Task: structure prediction
Amino acid sequence: MTDVSMTVNGRQVTGSVEDRTLLVQFLRDNLGLTGTHVGCDTSQCGACVVHLDGQAVKSCTLLAVQASGSSVTTIEGLAPSATELHPMQAAFRENHGLQCGYCTPGMIMTAVDMVARHGADLDEKTVRDELDGNICRCTGYHNIVKAILSVAQSMQGSGEGQRIAAE
Amino acid sequence: MYQTEYKRAGSLDEAAQLVAASGGEGKYVSGGMTLIPTMKQRLASPSLLVDLRHVEGHKGIAVSGQTVTIKGGTTHAEIAASEELKGVAPGFAGLAQLIGDPAVRHMGTIGGSVANFDPAADYPAALLAMEATILTDKREVAASDFFLGLFETALDENEIVTGVRFEAPESSAYEKFRNPASRYAMCGVFVAKRGEGKVGVGVTGAGASGAFRWAEAESALSGRFDVSALDGLAVDEGEMISDLHGSSAYRANLVKVVAKRAAKKAGASGGPEVSGPKTPGGDAP
Ligand SMILES: Cc1cc2nc3c(=O)[nH]c(=O)nc-3n(C[C@H](O)[C@H](O)[C@H](O)COP(=O)(O)OP(=O)(O)OC[C@H]3O[C@@H](n4cnc5c(N)ncnc54)[C@H](O)[C@@H]3O)c2cc1C
Ligand code: FES
Ligand code: FES
Result:
């Protein structure tokens, strides 16, 4: 067993894990943060996407020990308060970007990362390309793309970028 | 996943010592984007993992004149986003942008990819076409002497890939025909127009022994940098991969089709307008 410590959603956490423990297992089983999902065992579906030091990564393809010392943001850490959604969450809701919701946490974490990197320049082709690693079995992606683009467009000259990227 | 032990190396020397002391059971982990999935499938069971991700100075891109040096710990995302690299070798930066997906590109490294030499890995096509040099903690090896066969490289046990170095070509482009499910190349071709009319052609995803240089295409395009120079050429079907995604005959044809598209993207004259979904990765004028 190895002691790990990291910042998760702004909170310092520690735990004792087997070295083979995946980050997603640590988040779900040790910390009870079950918003991060596991949808495959081949690193392809993206249901498990979280941010590691501000970048989207697949938490099913990373050991908890590899993430020790880092800062992790999960879907639970996005909303500014219990009564307010993050703009990307609001956009998914507004645009009907989810059906069963299984892929949604990973989609949103990928989307936030995407908008943080591209800002208002984000276009539809780039969104579709960069959703390569996120699989949705329900929506056909169309409304997911719409939701992401709506957030990118709302950033035009609004200074919203800081808020979206801020974690 | 089987039990393993994890250690974080502070330097490449320390990493090499740790793996050397593990009696052949230890492995380096860089981005883990190949190794962790393989361990999850129980196809690999290293008793020790030595993490190179926190080694200082093992990351970075340096461009000096036309000479590009990329350190082994540099991620695909960093390569794809480097303005400096895009300035001299946009074809190579564009190739990195086509690897996997954003999350894979944030973790995966060029050193890990080169060391692993998956038959469908993208970088080897470019490194072969540009006659790049692979840098290790012990020596420098020409790409064509480094990539030996399926998952087989010239690396000695415990040897670490510390980077790659190449001369930026005059123009270059990568064309990738993806397997729609895995996103890996069914066939990827990198065409590099280098100085003095020399053209390099590297092919990945199709060859049964991994990426290779297509010598006939190189001499044809070196003689005449026109897409039609590839007419009448063919790769040996017997040397192509055959699997459930495509027969070797299919792949042999694909190599030619994709090579033509890559040549066109790299600025070769002639040839049909490239149709179908446009992918980034080209720097044709
Ligand atoms: C969903 C998905 C899609 C992918 N798609 C593509 C694709 O389209 N094209 C593509 O090319 N790749 C693809 N990959 C693979 C990805 O590019 C990997 O990042 C890369 O092949 C390995 O790099 P790594 O840093 O992750 O290495 P790791 O997984 O950490 O290591 C791979 C192997 O190399 C060894 N190693 C690692 N670093 C070094 C070093 N510096 N020196 C010596 N040995 C070392 C390790 O011991 C291990 O055996 C994909 C991966 C995933 C999960
Ligand atoms: S659960 Fe991580 S990619 Fe599918
Ligand atoms: S909403 Fe059901 S998988 Fe995407």
